[in-house]
Amino acid sequence: MRKKNVLLISMLMPLLLSLATITFAQPVDSYPAQAMWADLDVTAPVPNCNNFTVDIYINLTAAGMSSGANGMWAWEFKLYYESDKLNATGYTDNLPDASWDSPNSVVAGAGIEYGFNATHDRIHRAVSALPFVSPFPTAFVGVMSVCTIDFHVIYEGAQYDAPLIFAKNYGFDANLGDDTGEVIVFTAYDNTVPVVPEFPVALIMPIFMLATLVVVILGKTAWSRKRMSDIVVR
């Protein structure tokens, strides 16, 4: 009996490991300066009708900028996605510090307004420092999120890696500028978000097999106990 239980447990282990593989994913990476990337707040597939957040991060050092530059003074990006699978529901522009507060910065870009969410499959944001009143804006170096975007999954098909990209029909659509007026050369890193049905199809078979083996183990155990009881009674 002990050998049979060991055999059944050994059969269960691969299934348990497969479930762990489906449920958990690798952590989101960060990138070395000079960089911009789309950073997810999730590491597992997002079911239909659920929400997730994307932060547009930058990592910058003055050493990678033009001579005399102290830091970033302006940014712009267009993040493209597939609107038949994702719906952008909101966004927040993030400023480096209080010295950038209005009227010391100007904000532009269509965001999710004017039908862009449905017709262009993108969100467009742009911010520039504007030294209007003291204390004047401080040029930025370091790592920060320049924008936080809220998404809602509307995809009902099998698991799919929905792209979040900085270039589409018209090439690369992101820019950074320093406080001398020069362009900052950087690398943008796209991302994908795995979206799944509300109950992932990939889990159905492993769960069914796991449940079947559990029933078999419990059934064999109950049968063995009954047989031992019969022997004792005899």
Q: Quick check: average pLDDT?
A: 80
What pattern of helices and strands is seen along the backbone? HEEEEEEHEEEEEEEEH
Main CATH class of the largest domain? Mainly Beta
Q: For the largest beta sheet, what order do the strands appear in spatially?
A: 5-8-3-1-13
**CATH fold naming of the largest domain:** Immunoglobulin-like
Amino-to-carboxy terminus distance: 21 Å
Report Rg: 27 Å
User: Fraction of residues in helices?
Assistant: 25-40%
Named at the architecture level, the CATH assignment of the largest domain is Sandwich
Question: What features would you describe in this structure?
Answer:
- By secondary structure, the protein is an alpha+beta fold.
- Helices cover 25% and strands 36% of the residues.
- The chain has helices at 2-23, 116-119, 201-233; strands spanning 35-40, 46-47, 51-60, 72-80, 86-93, 105-111, 122-129, 142-153, 160-164, 167-168, 171-172, 174-178, 187-189, 191-196.
- The strands form four sheets. It has a five-stranded mixed β-sheet, with no helix packed on it.
- A hairpin with a 2-residue loop joins strand 10 and strand 11.
- The protein is elongated, with a radius of gyration of 27 Å.
- Residues 6-27 have low confidence and may be disordered.
Short structural description:
With about 230 residues, this protein is of the alpha+beta class.
List the helices and strands and how they pair.
Elements: H1 2-23, E1 35-40, E2 46-47, E3 51-60, E4 72-80, E5 86-93, E6 105-111, H2 116-119, E7 122-129, E8 142-153, E9 160-164, E10 167-168, E11 171-172, E12 174-178, E13 187-189, E14 191-196, H3 201-233
Helix pairs in contact: 1-3
